[in-house]
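Exercise 7. Given the encoded structure of a 1125-residue chain, write a plausible sequence.
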C-alpha cells in the first residue's frame, strides 16, 4: 500500500491522523489544506476506519470536488465514482433526485440558474403590478435568497413594516409559483433538503448512520443554513472534520476615509463605494470596495494607540503594516526571543539605536546577523535598558530559557562561559528550549509562525521570498513585487525546475535573482509559494506605503515603537498596545480592489482577501461549542514575447503580400520553442490542453497568466466541458460561458418544455421567440388565467384562455411543444435537439440575422455537447457531485432519463459561477478579444483549414491575409510559452468533420517548434528526418522543412489521425480501393486533401475530398488518380 503520510509536515500529519472526533483545522492560503483533506479521506479508507460510501465531503466549488476525486484516484486503488464528494448544491440535487417524492417535487424538476430566477421574479412582479422603483426585481431576488439561506420560509419571516410585509407576501407567491412549475432555485436546493431531513426521521437516521465521517472545506464561508445542514447530518455521533481560516476584522465604529476625504463608519460602507487607499510610496487615490464582511467578535480585541492620537481596534488576527524604522522609531529597548536552527531558543536584550555599528541597524537585527539566527520575536518593549534587562532575567527564570549567545563571544577575555563554545553547545543540548519558547510566546499572545524579524541570506541555508504589496507602479495600477536572491547553483536549478527563470543579480556577478510584479496580489502570492516550495524557503510579506517597506504584522504582534502610516502618508509610531474586551461586538472587514488596504481611524491597514458568499464566520465558534471540539490544529508553516515566438509570428505574417516588412525583435533571448500537438479529435485536444494547464499551474504559473484562444466562439464549449470536469476555474473574457449564451438558453428552454410543459420560466422565454405574433397582452391574459386557478401558462393556453389571433399563435406554439414532448420519448438527445432547433425555427432565425453566424455555430455546438453527454451518460460518467447511482430512475423512457440528466447538468454547469474578481482563473477568449493582452502561456487550438483560416475567408478578397493577421495577433499574445494544437476530426452538428492542418502551422519554420508526443503515440510520431532527432527542438537549420516535405508536419497513424498518410498499400481485389475516411490524399490538380466520405464499390466507387485550396469535391476513383499524401 502507498505511504500516504510521507511528506506531511508535523501539523499536517497531526490533522490527518486525528482519532474519530470532531476537529477544526485552521489553514491559511498555501498551507496545504487540500492535501490534508484528501489525505485524511484516503487515510480513513486505507486504515479501515471508513468505506468510500461512508464519507461525505463538502466543497464550495466543483473545481475543489473534482480535484479531490482526482487525487483520491491517484492515491488509492478505488473507484471514486459514486462517492459523495461535491458542492452543497450538487449534493443536495443528488439527494432530492433520489427522494423527490418525499421532498414534494416532480422527478423531472428543473434547476433555475440566477438569470432564470430573476426572469421569474420579474414576470411575477409584473403580474402583480408591483412598482419596480420601490420593489426592484433584483432586490426581491436577494430578499428571497437571503431568507432561504437563513433557513426561513415566508411564514417564518418577521415583518415589522408594510414594505417588508409586501416582500414577504411576494416571497410566498414566488414559492407557490415554483411549486406549480416544478422548478427550484439554488437556494431552494439546500433549504428543501434540510426540510426533507428535518421532517423524515427515518431518512435522516439512514444518512446519519451512513456518513460516519463528514469533511467540510472552507468552513468559514458556510452560511447559517449550510451549518445547520451539516449539524443535522452529523447528529449526536457524527464526526466533522472542518477546515477553515480565522478572519481579520476591525471593530464597529471605526471611521473609514472615503474617496472625497470624508470619513464614514465601517458599518455604513457598502460594496461599490470608493474609499481612499494607498497605491504605494505615499500615492493615495480612490479604490473600489468589492465586499464587506460582518461578524461578531469571539474573543478579546487589540487596541493600538499612536503618538499622533490615533486609535484603532481590531481582532488579534487582523493584519496591519507596522515595523521598526531607523530615523522614525524613538529609542526603544527590547527583550527578544531568538531562534537558531539546530541550536534552540534564547532570550536577550537590545535597543533600536546601538553604538559602534559600521552600518546603522536596529539592534536585534544586528545581533541576529552576528549569531547566525533564523528568527527573532520581540517579547517586550521598555523605556530603559535596566527595565529590559530585568524582564530578561525574570523570563529566563520563569520559563527556563538561557540568555547565553549561540556563538561564543570573541574579545580579550577567553575564560568566561560566554566565550566557551563547547559549554554553550552542551547547555543548549541539555535544555528543551523549544517547549519553553512555545509557552512564552503563547503567554505573550505571539505566534511561533510569525516572528518579527527573519534575517536575509543569499546562500542555501536560509531562503526568503519577499512579496511587497504595492511595490511598483505600472500606469495607474498598483503592482505587487515578488523577489528572491541567491548565490548558489542549487538554488538556481531548483527555481528553474519549478519553471521560474532567474538572471544574474548584476553584470559579472555569480549571484542570481528572480524579480517580477503582478497586478493581482493572489497571483503574486501563488508565485511566491511556488518559489518557496522549490527552495524550501519562507515567504515574507511587506507593503511599500511610505517609500520604506513595512512588514505585515497581525494586531496581536504589534509592539510599541513600531512605525505605521497615517492618512497623510506620514509615519506615526505606536505608543501602547493592549487587549480590550470585545466578545460579541460587531466587527467588519472590507475587500479593496487591487490595493488591498484602506484607512481605519487615520491609519493605513490591510484587508482580508477572502471571497464572502453570505458566510457567517461565527459558525466556527458555534462548531467548537456544538461539537465539543477539543482539537484545533493550525497549519501555518519580462512583458515581451521571447525570440522563438516573435520569429514564428514574423514568419507567418511574411506570407502576406501587402505587408510593410516590419519584424518584431526582443532582447529577451530566444526562449522556448513553440509546442505543437496533433490530436485525434477535439475531445483529445481539449484533454491535452487541460493536462498541460494543470502541469503549468503546478510549476508555478498562475491560471490568470494562461489563456486559451480560439477562432470561433463555438469552440469554447468543448474546452469549457473539459475544464468543468477537471475542476479548473476559468473566465470567458469579453463573452459568456457556453450555457449562459442567449441562443443556447433559448434552445434549452424548448428542451425544458419537452420535459415539463408546466415550466413557466421556459414557456415565457420562448413562447414568442422566434417571434410568432404573441404579444405582451396575450402573455398577461395567460398569467391572469393561470393565477385564477389553471396552474401554469401552458395549461391556461391549452384551456383556450386567449382567443383570436393570439390564441391561434399560441396553438401553433403548443403544437411545437407537444411535438417535442413526444420526440423526447424516443429520440436520442442529439436528435431531439435537432428537432427542437428545426421545429422552433431558432436556427433559421439566427441564420437570417446579419451577424448570426456565431449564434448558429453555438447551436450546432449544443448538438455536439449533447452527443458527448449522451456517450458519457451511457458509460456512467458524471461530473463531481452529480452521480446518479442513488437516484431513482426518471419515469418514462430511457431517452427521457437522458434528457432530465442533461438539463440538470446544464443548469449546474451554468450555475457554477465564474471566478470572482481577484480569483486566480484561466482566461478563455476568441483571438479577436485577445488583442492588446499578453500571457505567460497561450494555447491556440483548432488550427485546421476551414476553421483557422475560416471557411468564409476563402471567398473574400484579402480574406486569407486578414486571417493571417489574426494568427499573428494570436501568436504574439504569448510571452514565454505557446502551444499550437489541431485535431484530425472535430464534431460538427453531432457528426465528425475531418480536416487538415492549417497552412499557418506549415508557415512556421521547423527549427522554432517542438512536437509534443505522448508516450502512447511514440510509434507514429517518431522523427523522420535527421533534423528532428535531436533533443528538444534545436536540431535543424532555418532552411529545413517538415519531415514529410513541403512544409508539412510529422505525420500520424492513419487509423487515428486525419493528418496521417498511408505509406503504401496492397489490395486483394482489383476493384477494391485503399482509401478510408480520414486518409490524406493528393490530386495532381487540386493538391492535398482529406477523404471525408466514400460511396459505391469497384468501378462505381467515388470519394468526397476536402482540399486545402479548392474546397470539397466528389471524385470518381476510376478517373481521379488519387495518391496517398
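Solution.
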Amino acid at each position: 500500500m502507498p505511504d500516504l503520510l510521507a511528506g506531511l509536515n508535523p501539523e499536517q500529519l497531526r490533522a490527518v491522523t486525528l482519532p474519530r472526533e470532531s476537529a477544526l483545522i485552521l489553514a491559511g492560503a498555501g498551507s496545504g489544506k487540500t492535501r490534508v483533506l484528501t489525505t485524511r479521506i484516503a487515510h480513513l479508507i486505507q486504515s479501515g476506519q471508513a468505506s468510500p460510501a461512508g464519507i461525505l465531503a463538502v466543497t464550495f466549488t466543483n473545481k475543489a470536488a473534482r480535484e479531490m476525486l482526482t487525487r483520491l484516484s491517484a492515491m488509492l486503488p478505488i473507484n471514486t465514482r459514486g462517492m459523495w464528494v461535491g458542492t452543497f448544491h450538487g449534493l443536495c440535487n443528488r439527494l432530492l433526485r433520489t427522494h423527490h417524492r418525499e421532498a414534494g417535487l416532480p422527478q423531472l424538476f428543473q434547476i433555475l440558474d440566477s438569470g432564470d430566477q430573476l426572469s421569474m421574479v420579474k414576470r411575477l412582479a409584473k403580474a402583480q403590478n408591483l412598482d419596480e422603483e420601490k420593489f426592484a426585481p433584483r432586490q426581491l431576488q436577494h430578499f428571497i435568497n437571503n431568507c432561504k439561506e437563513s433557513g426561513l420560509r415566508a411564514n417564518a419571516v418577521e415583518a415589522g413594516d408594510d414594505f417588508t410585509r409586501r416582500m414577504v407576501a411576494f416571497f410566498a407567491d414566488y414559492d407557490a409559483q415554483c411549486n406549480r412549475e416544478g422548478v427550484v432555485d439554488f437556494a431552494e436546493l439546500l433549504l428543501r433538503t434540510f426540510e426533507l431531513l428535518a421532517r423524515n426521521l427515518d431518512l435522516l437516521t439512514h444518512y446519519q448512520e451512513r456518513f460516519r465521517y463528514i469533511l467540510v472545506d472552507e468552513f468559514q464561508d458556510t452560511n447559517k443554513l449550510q451549518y445547520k445542514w451539516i449539524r443535522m447530518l452529523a447528529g449526536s455521533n457524527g464526526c466533522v472534520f472542518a477546515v477553515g481560516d480565522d478572519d481579520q476584522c476591525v471593530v464597529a465604529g471605526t471611521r473609514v476615509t472615503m474617496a472625497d476625504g470624508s470619513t464614514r463608519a465601517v458599518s455604513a460602507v457598502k460594496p461599490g463605494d470608493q474609499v481612499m487607499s494607498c497605491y504605494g510610496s505615499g500615492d493615495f487615490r480612490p479604490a473600489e470596495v468589492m465586499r464587506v464582511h460582518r461578524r461578531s467578535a469571539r474573543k478579546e480585541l487589540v487596541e493600538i494607540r499612536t503618538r499622533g492620537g490615533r486609535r484603532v481596534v481590531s481582532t488579534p488576527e487582523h493584519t496591519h503594516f507596522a515595523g521598526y524604522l531607523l530615523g522614525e522609531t524613538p529609542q526603544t529597548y527590547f527583550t527578544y526571543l531568538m531562534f537558531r536552527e539546530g541550536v534552540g531558543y534564547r532570550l536577550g536584550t537590545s535597543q533600536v539605536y546601538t553604538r559602534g555599528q559600521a552600518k546603522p541597524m536596529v539592534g536585534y537585527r544586528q545581533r541576529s546577523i552576528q549569531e547566525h539566527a533564523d528568527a527573532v520575536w520581540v517579547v517586550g518593549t521598555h523605556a530603559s535598558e535596566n527595565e529590559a534587562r530585568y524582564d530578561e532575567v525574570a523570563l529566563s527564570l520563569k520559563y527556563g530559557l538561557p540568555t547565553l549567545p549561540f556563538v561564543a563571544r570573541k574579545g580579550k577575555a577567553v575564560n568566561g562561559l560566554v566565550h566557551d563554545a563547547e559549554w554553550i553547545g552542551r547547555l543548549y543540548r541539555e535544555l528543551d528550549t523549544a517547549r519553553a519558547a512555545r509557552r512564552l510566546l503563547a503567554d505573550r499572545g505571539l505566534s511561533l509562525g510569525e516572528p518579527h524579524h527573519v534575517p536575509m541570506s543569499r546562500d542555501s541555508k536560509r531562503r526568503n521570498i519577499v512579496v511587497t504589496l504595492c511595490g511598483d507602479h505600472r500606469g495607474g495600477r498598483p503592482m505587487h513585487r515578488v523577489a528572491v536572491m541567491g548565490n548558489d547553483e542549487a538554488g538556481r536549478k531548483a527555481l528553474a525546475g519549478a519553471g521560474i527563470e532567474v538572471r544574474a543579480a548584476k553584470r559579472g556577478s555569480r549571484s542570481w535573482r528572480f524579480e517580477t510584479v503582478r497586478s493581482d496580489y493572489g497571483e503574486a502570492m501563488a508565485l511566491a509559494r511556488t518559489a518557496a516550495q522549490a527552495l524550501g524557503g519562507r515567504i515574507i510579506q511587506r507593503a511599500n506605503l511610505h517609500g520604506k517597506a513595512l512588514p505585515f504584522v497581525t494586531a496581536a504582534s504589534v509592539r510599541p515603537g513600531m512605525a505605521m502610516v497615517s492618512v497623510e502618508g506620514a509615519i506615526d509610531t505606536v505608543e501602547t498596545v493592549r487587549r480590550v474586551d470585545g466578545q460579541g461586538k460587531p466587527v467588519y472587514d472590507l475587500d479593496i480592489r487591487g490595493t488591498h488596504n484602506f484607512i481605519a481611524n487615520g491609519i493605513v491597514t490591510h484587508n482580508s482577501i477572502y471571497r464572502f458568499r453570505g458566510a457567517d464566520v461565527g459558525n466556527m465558534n458555534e462548531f467548537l461549542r456544538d461539537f465539543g471540539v477539543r482539537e484545533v490544529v493550525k497549519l501555518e508553516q519580462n512583458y515581451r514575447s521571447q525570440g522563438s515566438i516573435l520569429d514564428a509570428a514574423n514568419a507567418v505574417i511574411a506570407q502576406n503580400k501587402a505587408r510593410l516588412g516590419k519584424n518584431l525583435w526582443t532582447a529577451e533571448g530566444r526562449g522556448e520553442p513553440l509546442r505543437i500537438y496533433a490530436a485525434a479529435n477535439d475531445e483529445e485536444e481539449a484533454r491535452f490542453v487541460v493536462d498541460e494547464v494543470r502541469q503549468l499551474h503546478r510549476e508555478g504559473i498562475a491560471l490568470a497568466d494562461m489563456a486559451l484562444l480560439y477562432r470561433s466562439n463555438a469552440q469554447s464549449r468543448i474546452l469549457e466541458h473539459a475544464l468543468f470536469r477537471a475542476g479548473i476555474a476559468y473566465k470567458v473574457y469579453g463573452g459568456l460561458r457556453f450555457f449562459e449564451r442567449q441562443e443556447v438558453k433559448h434552445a434549452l428552454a424548448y428542451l425544458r418544455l419537452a420535459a415539463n410543459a408546466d415550466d413557466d420560466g421556459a414557456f415565457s422565454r420562448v413562447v414568442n421567440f422566434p417571434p410568432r405574433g404573441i404579444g405582451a397582452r396575450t402573455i398577461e391574459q395567460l398569467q391572469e388565467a393561470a393565477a385564477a386557478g389553471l396552474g401554469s401558462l401552458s395549461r391556461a393556453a391549452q384551456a383556450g384562455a386567449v382567443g383570436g389571433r393570439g390564441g391561434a399563435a399560441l396553438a401553433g406554439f403548443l403544437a411545437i411543444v407537444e411535438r417535442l414532448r413526444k420526440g423526447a420519448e424516443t429520440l436520442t438527445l442529439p436528435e431531439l435537439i435537432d428537432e427542437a432547433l428545426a421545429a422552433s425555427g431558432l436556427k433559421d432565425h439566427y441564420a437570417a440575422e446579419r451577424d448570426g453566424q456565431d449564434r448558429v455555430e453555438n447551436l450546432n455546438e449544443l448538438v455536439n455537447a449533447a452527443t458527448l453527454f449522451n456517450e458519457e451518460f451511457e458509460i456512467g460518467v458524471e461530473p463531481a457531485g452529480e452521480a446518479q447511482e442513488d437516484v431513482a430512475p426518471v419515469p418514462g423512457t430511457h431517452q427521457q432519463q437522458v434528457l432530465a440528466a442533461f438539463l440538470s447538468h446544464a443548469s449546474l454547469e451554468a450555475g457554477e459561477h465564474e471566478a470572482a474578481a481577484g480569483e486566480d482563473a484561466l482566461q478563455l477568449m476568441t483571438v479577436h478579444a485577445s488583442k492588446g493582452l499578453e500571457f505567460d502561456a497561450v494555447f491556440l487550438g483548432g488550427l485546421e483549414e476551414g476553421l483557422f483560416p475560416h471557411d468564409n475567408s476563402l471567398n473574400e478578397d484579402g480574406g486569407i491575409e486578414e486571417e493571417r493577421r489574426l494568427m499573428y495577433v494570436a501568436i504574439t499574445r504569448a510571452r514565454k510559452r505557446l502551444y499550437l494544437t489541431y485535431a484530425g476530426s472535430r464534431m460538427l452538428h453531432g457528426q465528425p468533420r475531418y480536416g487538415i492542418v492549417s497552412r499557418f502551422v506549415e508557415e512556421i519554420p521547423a527549427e522554432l517548434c517542438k512536437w509534443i508526443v505522448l508516450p502512447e503515440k511514440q510509434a507514429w510520431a517518431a522523427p523522420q528526418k535527421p533534423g528532428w532527432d535531436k533533443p528538444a527542438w534545436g536540431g535543424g537549420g532555418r532552411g529545413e522543412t517538415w519531415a514529410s516535405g513541403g512544409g508539412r508536419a510529422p505525420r500520424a497513424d492513419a487509423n487515428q489521425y486525419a493528418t496521417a498518410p498511408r505509406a503504401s498499400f496492397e489490395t486483394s481485389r482489383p476493384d477494391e480501393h485503399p482509401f478510408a475516411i480520414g486518409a490524406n490524399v493528393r490530386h495532381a490538380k487540386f493538391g492535398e486533401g482529406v477523404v471525408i466520405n466514400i460511396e459505391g464499390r469497384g468501378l462505381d466507387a467515388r470519394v468526397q475530398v476536402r482540399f486545402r485550396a479548392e474546397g470539397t469535391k466528389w471524385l470518381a476513383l476510376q478517373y481521379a488518380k488519387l495518391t496517398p499524401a
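Remark. The mean pLDDT is 80. Students should compare their own answers with the one above.
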